[in-house]
Structures are given as C-alpha cells and as structure tokens.
Specification:
The complex is a heterotrimer. Helices cover 76% and strands 0% of the residues of chain A. Chain A has 24 helices and no strands. Chain B contains eight helices and 20 strands. In chain B, strand 17 and strand 18 form a beta hairpin. The chains are: A mainly alpha, B alpha+beta, C alpha/beta.
C-alpha cells in the first residue's frame, strides 16, 4: 500500500488529462442515440455488422501475429544476434514508422496492382506495424541478464529450448504491449485498407461519412470499435500479468557478442526478407515517382514550407501529448487503487477510432465549446493529442516502471518534495522512454491526415496534406518530393527511437 | 528535559487484515545508534518506512525532535521530516555523478558552501577523489558509502539504514560496518539501523530493539540483549541456546539442574523452570574428571576456524551443543564429561 | 508561408494565458462585400485544380478567399457536424451527391443564378447550382475495338470479356451505378452489375490508370470520364495518344453527366460576397479556366466548350435528379454484394 496523501495534485492532473479522451465518446454517444435507442440496436444487429466485426478482427489478428513474429525476430537481430552492423539495421528496421500506411499502400499498388484485397492489406499493415513490437522487445532483450540463459544451459537445455523456456517468457510484457498497439492500429487504419479495397470496419465508417452522408451510422459503428479497444486493452492487462519485476537496480552482466557463421547467415537473410518489402518497395517507388514527368512544377520552397509546418506541428503535438501523459502514466505506476488506474484506462478509449471519427468529434465539440479556437492551431493540436495520448502513456508507463521506487523514496527522505522528485529523479531516469514516446508521437503526427485535413487553420499545408492533395489527382510525380521530404523528416526521430530502444541504460 | 531524537508511541499497522506492527514504543536519544533487529518479514522495514514518512501508521504517533510528525491528525510528509534514508543496495541516482548524488538533498546546489560540504562528506566516507565518477563505476561497498555521505550531507535528525550491507560479501560487510559506525559517530548522527544480522546489530549499536512478530520483544543495550534476554523467544533469536528443565530453589538465586546447582543471572521465583544455557558456557572435561555429573558421547564436531561446535549425546538421548575453542575439539565417538561455567537464565515453563 | 506565420503567432498567443477572447472577424457585414471581406469556401475540389481559379476571383473582386480543401464527402460531413455554426459561406463540391446531402444547410439561390444553367443540372430545391459537367464515356483502343459499344448493355457482350477496364473505388463510377439504381431500380441494377461482373472487367486503381491501359492496349475498353483522354492529349500531344472517347447513345445511363456545383450556406456571414462567388463561377473567366485546365463541360448556358468536345446539347444525358446521387453508401453495399468493389 503506497502513500497517496499529498498526491492529489498529480492524480487531479491525470484525471483532467484523461478527460480529453472522452471528447470523442461524448460525440459518438450523442450521435448514435440522436434518434433513440432503436436505430442504434438495429444497426448493430445487422448480419453485415457481424460479418464486418469478424473481417476486422481477422485482419487485426493476423497483422498482430505477423508483427509479433517479424518484430521479435528483428529485435533479436539488432540486440542478441551479435552480428556486425546492428546500428545500421536498427535504424533500417525502424524506418517503416516513417512511412504512412497510405503512402506505402500506394507504392505497393503502383508496383504490383494485383496485390489488392486481404493479402494486400495484411502485407502493408504487417510491414508497417512490426516496429511497434520490435522497439519494446529490443529494449527488454538488451537488458536481459545472460546469467539466466547460462543457468538453463548448465541444466541441459538446448539453445532452442532456452529461447522458449527462458528468453520468451521474459519478453512477455513487451510483446503483449507491442501487440496491443499493433492490434489497435490495424483496427483503426484506413489508408491501407482503402487502397487495398479490403472491406473492414474503418472502410465502412469512412464510407458512411463520405459516401453515405450518414454520421449516425458512422458513430454507431465507431462505438463498436471503442468496445473493441476496451476489450483488447483489458485482455492485454490480463496477459501482461501482475508482476512488476522490472524494478531491478543492478545492471545486467555483459553479454559475449560474437555471432557464429550460421547466426550471421540467418540474421542477414531474415533482415533482407523483412527490409525489402518493409522499406525497399515504398522507397524505390517514391524515388521512381520523382522521375516521372508532371505538368505541375513542384516549387522546392513549397516542399520546404510544408516540411517546416509538419515539423512544427509534430513537435508541438509531441510536447503537448507528453505534458498531458506525464501525470496519467505516473499515477498509474506509482499510485495504487482504481482511482489511479482509471485515467490511464480512459485514454485507451480512443485508440481504435479511425482518424476521421476523432476529427469529426473534435469539430462537433470544438465548434460548440471552443469557437474562438475552431480551425485554429490549438484545436488542431488538441485533436492530434487525443489520437497519440495512448501511445505516449504506454511509453511513459514502461519507462516509469523501470525506475525503482526506492530512488524516489530516498529523494523524499533527503527533503525533496514530490514535484521536485519528479523533475530531478523520475523524469531524468525515464528520459530514454520519454524521448522514445515523444519521437513516436512526433512521427505519428507528421504522418497524420484526417485530423489535420479537417482541423487545420485555413491555408495551412503540411507534408501529409500535400501528399493527399496530389495523390487525389493521381499526380505521383508531384507526390514524390513531398513523400521523400516526409521520409527524411521522419528518419530523424526514427533513428532516435531505434537507438534508444537498444541502449543498455541511458546514462553510463 | 531534552526531547528524544525519535519517539514512537503505540504504533500499530496492518496490511490487508494482517497486523504487521503491534503497539510499538521506542525512544532513540540524540547521537545513539539503535539497531532494529528481527527476522525477515518481521515488520522491520515497515517500521522504518513509517519513521521515514513513506507509510502512514494506522494507530499511534511518531515524533521527531519532540515534534509530532504522524498521529491521527498530523501528517508531515517524508521530505519535511529531516530523516535521511540509506536503502538496501544504496539506490544511488544512476543519472547523477557521485558528487551530484551527495549534493542531492542540499539547497542551493551550485553554491561554494555546497561544494565544500560535498567534499567534506566524501572525505568522511573515504572517497575524496570520486566526486566525478558515475555510480556504475563504483563497487558495491563504495556505493554504500556514497549513499551514507548523501544521507549525512543534509544533517538529518535521524539517519535510517535499511539492511545497508545485505548485498555485500561477508568480509566487506564487516570492515564496512566498522567504517560506517565511525562515520556516524564522527558526524554525531542519530541512526536507526535495520538488520536481520545479530552480529551486525550487537557490534554496531548502542541499543538494540528486537522486533519479533510485530512487537518489540526487548529494547536494551547489546550486552543485555544477549546476556539477559527477557523471553525465551529473544533468547532463541539472539545467539544459540540449549534448554533444560530445572527447579529454582527458595533463595531465588540458585537453580537445580542435571548439571548440578547453577547460579542465576537474574532472580526467579521458586519452582519448575526452563533453564537456558549458551553453548560457550559448557566445558568438556575428561569423563573421569572429579565432580563430573554428566557424561556423553561426541556425535559430531564442526570446525569454524577460531572456534567450533560439538554435539554431545547424553545417555537419555538428549543432545547438547557445546561451543569450544578450535584446538579443544574432541574426537568423534569419544566419551566426555560436561560442566557449566557461569550464571544461567531461568524462564517460566509454558 | 502565411500559415506558418499564423501558427507561430498562435503558439505565441497560447503562451499568454487568457488571450483566447473573441477572435473577431473583421468583416461580419452581410450587406456589403467590400475589398477587405474574406470569403470562406469549403472546397471538395482539389487545391491543385482550383486554387488559381480562386486567385482569379480575388483579383477580379478584391474579395479574398479562405479555402478549406478536402474530399467532398468529408466536407459535407464537416458541414453537417458544424451545423449553423459553420464558418463556411460557400460549399463548392466535386459532385452533386455531397451537395444533396447538405441541402438543409443551404439557402435558396436567386433565380438569376439558377436560370443560367439547365434545370437538370441544379437542385430541384434551387439550393445549389451546377458549374461543370463530367460525362461518362467508354474510352477505347481503335485497333482492338474498332466498333466500341455505345450502350451499357453493349458492354455485356461476351466479346468484351476480360477486356474492359474500370476503377471500382472511383466516385464517378459509383455515381454511375447510383444512377443505374435510380433509373432501373435495385433489382434491375443488380441484374446488370451481376452480368457485368461475369464479363470479368479488369479493376484499376484510378481512372487515369484505366485510360493508360486502354491506350497501351492492355485492355480494349475503359469506363471513365470524358476528360481523362483530353488530359493525356494535352500532356503528350495528340499524335502520341491512340485511345479515343466513345460518347454513349442519347439517354443511355452510361452517359451520365455528374456535376461539380456550389451552394451558399444559409448561415453564411458574407452572403453578398458568396453570391459574387457564384456569379464568378458562372462567368466567362471561370469558363475559360475550366475549358483549358479541367476539360470539363461548362454548364452555364451558351458557354463555349473545350476544343475537340462534342456539343453539350447533343449528348442527351439520361434524365435523373442529381440530388438522388447521395445514396452512395447503398451503391457501395450493392457493389460489394456483386463482388465488384472489394475482394
């Protein structure tokens, strides 16, 4: 039982921060039940709705399974395999985070038009999502104490059995938390399923807005996604287990790193099999687009402006998300009782919602209660923060879990108050996790489209709106420079992310 | 009357229905080193956390320097108590240098005053050159000394040490604990030192509080804890004991046992009692020695270097453990006579 | 550049707590449209297609335009969500369905605006007016298909099996299917679509890809809008392009004309300027722009059409109330049912 008195301030902040996640829920409930309960029930009871649920879960499930396998293998290559060139591979393996799913889907289709349907959506999403598994797993792998494997080896376990009996069980938490992010991403993604013409929930939700002009139907279907997000989050917290064994202060022993010939061959072959579809296909196509002729001359200054704007939006969004996520994650880790856990759970509500639903709900609420900021910068940031808060909270959560509580207690006993302890102890130690969360949010914000499109101040162009603009008129030659700029802009936080994930500890 | 550095009154605490601390009363004087000795899971760490302000007691009060810091109404949080903690394994901040760790609790951390205080503390703990090192570059013992310097730097009313050496190897532990006592005395610090190691408690503290089953079973000087335990539980916990039935005779000073009449350390009312003898009080003599009343067969001997123990089986099957100087260890299988030296303790039968 | 500066200004404002007072619109006057008026246009038409047109409007009238670009359907959803609080004055949509969906939010246009355009291409309610028309055609490769069909039933002929290209996600194709449902009924539409699906049409990602496939001979026929061919000719020269447009027989639903159009929000704060904008869209300046940039048909009566296009009045498009094209979601469900939309 931990001391909770005097900590009402962070808890209060956590609640306020998590309330913003309720904005979409407010809108969805108002819309869904605007005509009473009956239409809501009717919509849900349709055979079609059920088959959509099944299709969506089949896609999300297979993408998650593939991402877990690819991501865990990639994590092994960049940490435990011991082969040369791991730094380069780390960054290469993280790069799919820099490529929006709609862009990579365009690239696949323009290269291989027949790949549409389930297989296309599955391919694009799996190769876009595995870094969400790779990053936390690599972080855990690089901190694994090799003594456990040595003990198992002395007890007669083969290398193969050691992987399953010793290594994988220690990775359970990282794998499940990564898998949750992937599953929710796959449920909410629209870019890939639209380009691949694979009908799932988000496709129908977008259709209800764009083609059916039927916001009520879209809202009703979105509520199903909210429930799915809650169910998945709950399942993940069960799978995560109750142990908080990450509170270790002693450093792991150093690992002997020298890869055998067969390990090197396996690692390099596997890396090629992953990297060609994950980054080779999109990047080669983007470069090929640059070579095409276009009647529109893309002014380099336009690219610069859009890049600057994307960078600014991304940094402001990441900072704002970080500020809001801090009290939420800190309360969830350091305080006990349902009151401390509730804010964290609330942020997951929005996690499976497609961007357009969040965008429309911020429009709905913004125009009613924040009229002066409507279609202004603050509300755009607000909308993006809603989307990225869950990822940031989960990054911070695992960062705080790695900080032994004893350090904070020592600080208190030395006469340092709660806020000062947060600033001087908890935050600096969690810094790698904080940077990683911020980099992820920034990447996601740079790629984000629907919220930017509907909430941006009039006249604001970002890389993603430019890419969207030119691709709607099929001018891939003009898309090229913007897509390349996005890749380059996103490569920086991506490299940071990859490097952070395999750092043994951030300080020595 | 001068107030105590630390005073606990009727402190009780439970976790989920299990009472871990019962009616604890404890006074620590200024400059004293008090050991809180008890078995693992006996509530020592909880008591320490209550003193530190990391846990709020459900009943009772805590006063520091005569000021109540926790009772039913008052609650002073950890950072306002002036109580510095040295946890297990030191818990140095990994992101700060050694000097920054020591300066952590000081105000105006960049002032010249702080710089001199830090070097004073590092000198005190014998690490004057290591201010710029990272904690990960230090050995376990050095880390502990830095943790102590960090705690002392703030001039706390009380320093709390929570099993500070449990992670270190035996040799290092002994030399380090002597150093720490010297450092604490040099700083004239008041300390509460939690440990489950009786040697550590008896050799370092001015007073020892024995915590058994959530209660203070005895609170006295180290010698008194060993020589005159106030209960069989304390007697069994502190050092080894051999128990025999006996009868206190009317003088209240003498007890009749199978080893003959023995003197009592503390008077006991006449009647049947349990007599408690320390293994080192036994002496082995030749079976035919004059005055020998008890003989037995040597079953096992154990060699510890400076001394050793012998298990002797008496004719009725009872086994007596005897502690002897190593060079006096008998042959296994030989028949020996047993005598008791010095005074013994008598406790009521259950 | 402007937006980046605006963002920085907004950031600066955020740091000063409590500056969020009323962001006063400098010109909320509904009676005059002076030079300092800023008109807010929600455009379902792509920025690259219309930004120069908006600039021409500004230089002609002195009224600046704050344009918000997005998918027409998304813009309609945005308007529906904003309701009467919307900052928009004008909705300029890529297709009639999106205009039909927000008709409740639009005000009735003056007769003068409506009378400039054939009633067939405006809302029956008079709330929006068509600006340009896109005609569905069969683009064909003369070498492979010397006699292309000119009715949709002609497309069902087995000789075209596996030789017809189409873009299943394209909005104009889906509008055509919607029109098919309206004209032939749900059962009639399903019957045609099932037969069409049996003829193994080849799906492409975009209309331009269909056109290029026809031109290169990968397929013989393609279902697209009329201007895709003109776009290619303008880019590569007439000699380089083999493919030709087949316009459909009079009244055949395959020759559907879908329109881009505009309406004024009843909540518009700059109604006068908005009306000037509608007038401008019907002006010769705008007509010249569409003729040379988008090769669409100009719907304003008496306007000259782009070079090489058959006369608009000769086309005899099928009769349909374009506002009915808003039931696109039902169309998509039908397309899924017959297997023409998703895999």
């Amino acid at each position: 039982m931990k001391q909770t008195r005097g900590l009402t301030v962070p808890l209060g902040l956590a609640f306020v921060a998590s309330l913003i996640s309720l904005v979409p829920l407010w809108y969805l409930v108002t819309q869904s039940f605007s005509k009473g309960l009956q239409p809501f029930v009717d919509e849900l009871m349709q055979q079609r709705t059920l088959s959509l649920i099944v299709r969506s879960f089949v896609l999300a499930g297979s993408v998650t399974a593939a991402s877990v396998i690819i991501g865990t293998f990639a994590a092994w290559v960049i940490t435990l395999s011991g082969i040369r060139g791991r730094t380069f591979l780390t960054i290469a393996f993280s790069l799919p985070l820099a490529i929006p799913s709609y862009l990579s889907a365009f690239a696949w289709i323009s290269w291989k038009p027949s790949i549409t349907g389930f297989f296309g959506a599955f391919t694009v999403l799996s190769f876009a999502c595995y870094p969400y598994v790779m990053l936390p797993v690599a972080a855990t792998m690089s901190r694994l104490d090799p003594v456990h494997e040595d003990v198992a080896r002395t007890m007669g376990r083969s290398n193969f059995r050691i992987v399953f009996e010793v290594v994988l069980p220690q990775l359970r938490r990282s794998i499940t938390s990564g898998a949750l992010l992937v599953a929710l991403y796959a449920l909410s993604d629209f870019g890939a399923v639209a380009a691949m013409r694979h009908e799932v929930f988000t496709w129908v939700i977008y259709g209800a807005y764009r083609a059916g002009f039927n916001p009520t139907r879209a809202a009703t279907l979105s509520i199903v996604l909210v429930m799915a997000a809650l169910a998945l989050t709950f399942a993940e917290s069960l799978a995560r287990g109750r142990d908080k064994s990450a509170n270790r202060t002693t450093a792991a022993r150093h690992r002997q790193r020298n890869a055998s010939r067969s390990t090197t061959v396996l690692s390099l072959t596997g890396s090629a099999v992953i990297l060609v579809p994950a980054i080779g296909v999109p990047i080669i196509n983007i470069i090929a687009w640059l070579g095409r002729s276009s009647e529109r001359v893309v002014d380099l200054s336009q690219v610069w402006m859009a890049t600057g704007q994307s960078f600014l939006n991304g940094s402001v969004t990441a900072s704002a998300t970080l500020l809001l996520a801090l009290p939420v994650a800190w309360s969830a880790v350091r305080l006990s009782g349902w009151r401390a856990q509730l804010p964290e759970r609330l942020t997951y509500i929005t996690h499976a919602l497609p961007g357009i639903v969040v965008a429309i709900s911020v429009v709905y609420v913004g125009i009613r209660v924040a009229r002066p900021w409507y279609q202004e910068f603050p509300l755009l940031i607000f909308g993006q923060v809603i989307i990225f808060l869950p990822v940031m909270v989960s990054s911070l959560r695992s960062a705080f879990e790695k900080t032994p509580v004893a350090l904070e207690e020592v600080a208190h006993s030395l006469g340092v108050g709660h806020l000062a302890t947060l600033l001087r102890v908890a935050l600096p130690i969690a810094l790698p996790g904080i940077l990683a969360g911020s980099a992820l949010s920034m990447l996601a914000a740079v790629k984000e489209l629907p919220v930017t499109l509907l909430l941006r101040p009039t006249g604001m162009d970002t890389l993603s709106t430019k890419i969207w603009d030119f691709s709607t008129i099929s001018d891939y030659a003009a898309v090229g420079p913007f897509a390349l700029a996005m890749l380059l802009l996103a490569a920086l936080p991506t490299a940071l992310l990859g490097t952070l994930s395999v750092m043994k500890d951030g300080h020595s | 009357m001068k107030s105590h550095a630390l005073e606990l009154r009727n402190v009780s605490h439970s976790f989920g229905g299990t009472e871990v601390l019962r009616d604890i009363n404890l006074c620590v004087s200024h400059g004293d080193i008090t050991a809180l000795l008890g078995p693992s899971g006996g509530g020592k760490t909880t008591l320490l956390r209550i003193i530190a302000g990391l846990e709020r007691p459900q009943h009772g009060s805590v006063s520091i320097n005569g000021t109540v810091v926790a009772d039913g109404k008052t609650w002073v949080p950890a950072h306002e108590r002036g109580v510095a903690l040295v946890p297990q394994e030191g818990a140095l901040f990994p992101h700060l240098s050694v000097a920054e760790n020591v300066a952590f609790g000081l105000k105006k951390r960049r002032s010249a005053e702080v710089v001199s205080r830090v070097s004073e503390m590092l000198n005190l703990v014998g690490l004057p050159e290591s201010g710029n090192l990272r904690p990960s570059e230090l050995s376990g013992g050095m880390q502990q000394r830095v943790a102590l310097a960090r705690a002392l730097a703030t001039r706390p009313t009380v320093v709390l040490l929570d099993e500070p050496f449990s992670a270190l190897d035996a040799g290092l532990r002994e030399s380090l604990r002597d150093q720490v006592v010297e450092i604490l005395q040099a700083a004239n610090a008041t300390a509460v030192w939690v440990t489950h190691d009786q040697d550590e408690a008896l050799s370092t503290a001015n007073s020892v509080a024995v915590l058994l089953d959530g209660k203070i079973a005895q609170f006295s000087e180290p010698t008194a804890v060993y020589r005159t335990p106030q209960s069989t539980q304390v007697a069994h916990f502190i050092g080894e004991t051999v128990s025999f039935p006996g009868t206190v005779i009317n003088s209240k000073q003498i007890v009749e046992t199978r080893f003959g009449r023995l003197g009592l350390l503390t008077p006991h009312s006449p009647g049947a009692v349990i007599v408690m003898i320390r293994p080192e009080q036994f002496e082995l003599v030749s079976a035919h020695h004059t005055g020998t009343q008890v003989v037995g067969t040597v079953m096992t001997t154990r060699y510890f270097g400076h001394d050793g123990t012998v298990e002797v089986q008496l004719p009725d099957g009872v086994i007596v453990t005897v502690r002897l100087h190593a060079r006096l260890l008998p042959e296994v299988g030989s028949t020996v006579g047993i005598m008791v030296n010095g005074q013994v303790l008598a406790f009521d039968e259950k | 550049m402007k937006s980046l500066r605006k963002t920085i200004a907004a950031l600066a404002a955020l740091t000063l707590v409590g500056t969020a007072c009323s962001s006063s619109d400098s010109s909320t006057d509904t009676t005059t449209a002076s030079a300092d008026t800023t008109l807010t246009v929600y455009s379902g038409r792509s920025e690259e297609l219309v930004k120069d047109l908006f600039a021409a409007f500004t230089s002609e009238t002195g009224i600046s335009v704050d344009a918000r670009y997005g998918d027409s359907g998304e813009m309609a959803a945005l308007l529906m969500t904003e309701g009467s609080a919307s900052p928009a004055d004008v909705f300029f949509s890529q297709d009639a369905g999106a205009l039909g969906a927000v008709e409740d939010l639009l005000g009735k246009l003056p007769t003068q605006s409506l009378s400039n355009v054939d009633a067939k291409y405006s809302a029956t309610s008079g709330k929006w007016v068509g600006v340009t028309g896109r005609v569905r055609v069969v683009v064909y490769n003369p070498t492979l298909a010397p006699t292309p069909p000119n009715t949709i039933d002609g497309l069902l002929d087995p000789q075209w099996s596996g030789k017809i290209g189409f873009a299943p996600t394209n909005a104009s194709w889906q509008s055509f299917v919607t029109a098919l449902r309206v004209l032939r009924g749900e059962a009639g539409a399903e019957k045609w679509l099932t037969a069409f699906a049996k003829n193994k049409p080849v799906a492409f990602e975009k209309n331009s890809a269909v056109r290029d496939a026809v031109n290169s001979g990968e397929v013989s026929l393609g279902l697209v809008n009329h201007y895709y061919l003109l776009e290619k000719i303008a880019a590569e020269g007439a000699d380089a392009v083999t493919a030709k447009n087949q316009f459909m027989a009079p009244g055949d639903v395959g020759g559907l004309v879908n329109v881009s159009g505009a309406g004024i929000l009843s909540s518009a704060k700059h109604a006068n300027a908005a009306q000037k904008f509608i007038d401008f869209l019907q002006s010769e300046t705008a007509a010249e722009y569409f003729r040379t940039k988008t090769w669409e048909y100009i719907l304003t009566n008496g306007a000259q059409q782009a070079e090489g296009l058959p006369s608009f009045s000769d086309l005899k498009a099928p009769s349909i109330d374009l506002s009915d094209l808003k039931s696109l979601d039902i169309t998509q469900e039908l397309l899924q049912k017959v297997g023409l939309l998703t895999k």
